[in-house]
UniProtKB/TrEMBL annotation:
It comes from the Eukaryota. This is Protein NPGR2.
């Protein structure tokens, strides 16, 4: 029978007792490593008590007797042995450094390096036993002892010569790797991060693969631990060095170091590095930096098609749509992967956001539908939705009424098909469908789908509330629209109420509630100014400043209509302080001059607006109106401005009305007929016009 740890549990046993017990272990058929046991038998004759227990504890551990091994290891007085180990390691290091200087005599160390290695291994195995028993905090504290001993013994790091001929370096490596894992199991995130940072110090003489493994595991923990810890204290770094401010930045730094090591061929390529780095940059909102990292990868590390796809996603996420589209065109070319479904869908999505690219977007969506065949309904609904969006954008730039009507019908058909294939449960498709019906002024259908959207969302999406309110305003149900907006305001955070309050003010204006509208605008301005100061460097601050500009211009138009010139000028000066390079601001200034009868100054302001934005529809219409009043321009010029406005926005009732006035002024019979058609179109559009554009 193999002797158990209980039979040698007291310090009354001598080293020779352990020698005989080790001999019995060698003869036992259950032992896993006979050669090591034989070696242990030869060594036990010269072992002291702690070393002998360390040896027997290792044997018990190898047999799988974790509790017995732990009992043996707990009999070792580590606290008493620690000073001896530190002195012995320090002397061994000095001996190695002065090996060639034989004239200097060194005092003999209290322990051999082999004995130290044996005891450190015992401490490590004790930590493993505690881990196996679920005592993770005790295991981590035990494992930490190894690092403390080695770190305090070598001020300049672990010397290579000590790990060459014994298991000391191997034990140290295993302890450095194990300690963070133990703190993770003990649910101690702060200690986990501190142990990772400690493990990555250069003093442990770790090999490149081990260091890379620790860096990757540390980055993963920082990304997904779910908590924020204190940033590293890098007082020893130079002043210009980058110091991470939070978990995400530290993880990005570690993963970028790993990519650099791959580029230098110090470690093998690991695809998961790029996966985690993509997630980190996405969270940080810096996808352009991710694109830079991918572009710097050596050819052959990742597939060229995958490279195009990932870069396209990066640039699209960074707002560089056309760069992303060019990459997708390369990927979808005949020589690469023309049937790549994700790329076709993304390309169609990008094109659908630009009217001049809408035709290409419809082509990409059609190709995606062809590639699907009998594929999943979700992908089919997405492709149909994107097809509908592209066809809708095409209809807005159609030259003839027939082309416009045809594309609008096809857009609705595609969107309805997308909605049905998802059983009317996809929120984004329902929103697009309701929006398309609203823009085609089919308000009953638009209201039906908007109501369905709000019910499914539970009022959680701001866009759904706004669309419903604008549809109700187009139906001239202003009280219902205001009720919807009030309900939305009750369920929305104060930083997200800007668009709701602006829409509410416009609904109040059309109802003649001038005082209430001004109060709503004032409340909105106060909230926006606080938001701008609170998030001075955030993207939301830019949106707040843009919305504040629009609010000041809305107030300026109110005072212009009331002929309160001074108040209007104050509002315009406020908007000027936010942005002097604004087509809307220049247009409002022109309207003020026009109301004052200063037509030449008004024309200059409208031209400034069109220089900033040649497609600014209100400025095109106002320019035509003032030119007609001046009567110093040919009719062709006036008509060209109005037709340009209608090409950009065929649903603009003001453009149709002013075009009717232009034809009426011609005095001919044919022009009167054309004027009547224009007035009819203007009246029809005005009856279904929302207080704000649906989109």
């Amino acid at each position: 029978m193999v002797p158990s740890s209980e039979s040698i549990g007291t310090k009354d046993c001598s080293a020779s007792d352990y020698s005989s017990k080790a001999g019995e272990v060698v003869k036992h058929p259950d032992i896993g490593n006979i050669e090591e046991a034989e070696w242990s038998l030869r060594e036990t004759s010269s072992l002291n008590y702690e070393e002998a227990r360390a040896l027997l504890g290792r044997i018990e551990y190898q047999k799988g007797n974790i509790e017995a091994a732990l009992h043996v290891f707990e009999g070792i007085d580590i606290a008493a042995a620690t000073p001896k180990m530190k002195i012995a390691l320090a002397l061994a290091n000095r001996k190695g450094e002065r090996h060639k200087r034989r004239s200097q005599n060194l005092s003999s160390p209290p322990m051999s390096v082999h004995a130290i290695s044996l005891l450190l291994e015992a401490i490590f195995l004790k930590a493993k036993c505690l881990q196996g028993l679920g005592r993770f905090k005790e295991a981590a504290q035990s494992c930490k002892v190894i690092l403390d001993i080695v770190e305090s013994s070598f001020a300049e790091g672990f010397p290579e010569n000590l790990g060459a001929d014994c298991k000391l370096q191997e034990t140290l490596n295993r302890a450095v790797e194990l300690l963070p894992e133990l703190w993770k199991l003990a649910d101690a995130p702060r200690e986990t991060i501190m142990s990772y940072r400690r493990a990555l110090l250069p003093c442990w003489n770790l090999d490149a693969e081990t260091t890379a493994k620790l860096q990757k595991e540390f980055a993963i923990f920082l990304l997904y631990c779910g908590g924020e810890t204190c940033p590293p204290n890098l007082r020893s770094q130079m002043g210009s060095s980058f110091v991470p401010r939070n978990n995400i930045e530290e993880a990005i730094l570690l993963l970028m170091i790993l990519l650099r090591k791959v580029a230098l061929k110090r470690i093998e390529w690991d695809p998961s590095i790029l996966d985690h780095l993509s997630f980190a940059f996405s969270i940080a909102g810096d996808l352009s930096s991710l694109a830079t990292q991918i572009e710097e990868l050596l050819p052959g590390i990742i597939n060229r098609k995958e490279r195009y796809h990932i870069l396209a996603l990066c640039y699209y996420g960074a707002g560089e749509d056309l760069v992303a589209l060019n990459l997708l065109r390369k990927l979808l070319s005949g020589s690469e992967d023309p049937k790549c479904l994700p790329a076709l869908l993304i390309a169609s999505k990008i094109c659908g956001e630009y009217p001049d690219l809408a035709e290409e977007g419809a082509t990409f969506a059609s190709r995606a539908l062809e590639c699907l065949g009998d594929g999943c309904d979700q992908m089919e609904s997405t492709a149909n939705c994107l097809l509908g969006i592209s066809l809708s954008a095409q209809s807005k730039v159609a030259i003839t009424d027939f082309d416009r009507a045809t594309r609008q019908a096809k857009a609705l058909q595609a969107l309805v098909s997308a909605a049905r294939s998802t059983n009317m449960r996809d929120l984004s498709i329902l929103y697009r469908l309701s929006l398309e019906y609203a823009e085609q002024r089919k308000l009953n259908a638009a209201h039906y789908y908007a109501k369905m959207l709000l019910k499914l969302e539970g009022g959680s999406n701001l866009k759904g509330w706004l669309l419903m309110a604008r549809i109700l305003s187009a139906q001239k149900r202003y009280e219902d629209a205001e009720t919807i907006l009030n309900a939305a305001l009750d369920q929305t955070g104060k930083w997200e109420q800007g668009e709701l309050l602006r829409t509410k003010a416009k609904v109040q204006l059309v109802q003649g509630q001038l005082k209430g509208a001004v109060e709503t605008y004032t409340h909105l301005l106060a909230a926006l100014q606080v938001q701008t100061k609170t998030f001075s460097s955030d993207k939301s601050a830019n949106h707040a400043r843009s919305l504040e500009l629009e609010v000041w211009l809305d107030l300026a138009f109110i005072y212009i209509n009331l002929s309160q010139w001074h108040d209007a000028e104050i509002c315009l000066s406020k908007s000027e302080a936010i942005s002097s390079y604004s087509a809307s601001k220049c247009h409002a200034t022109g309207v003020l001059y026009e109301k004052k009868g200063l037509y030449k100054e008004a024309i200059k302001a409208f031209r400034s607006a069109l220089n900033i934005d040649p497609a600014h529809v209100p400025s095109l219409i106002s320019t035509a109106v003032v030119l007609r009043k001046l009567s110093d321009q040919s009719n062709a010029v006036i008509r060209s401005f109005l037709m340009a406005a209608l090409r950009l926005d065929g649903m603009n009732s003001s453009a149709w009305y002013n075009l009717g006035l232009f034809y009426k002024s011609q005095g001919t019979q044919s022009s009167k007929l054309e004027a009547a058609e224009c007035f009819e179109a203007a009246a029809s559009l005005e009856e279904t016009a929302p207080v704000e554009p649906f989109r």
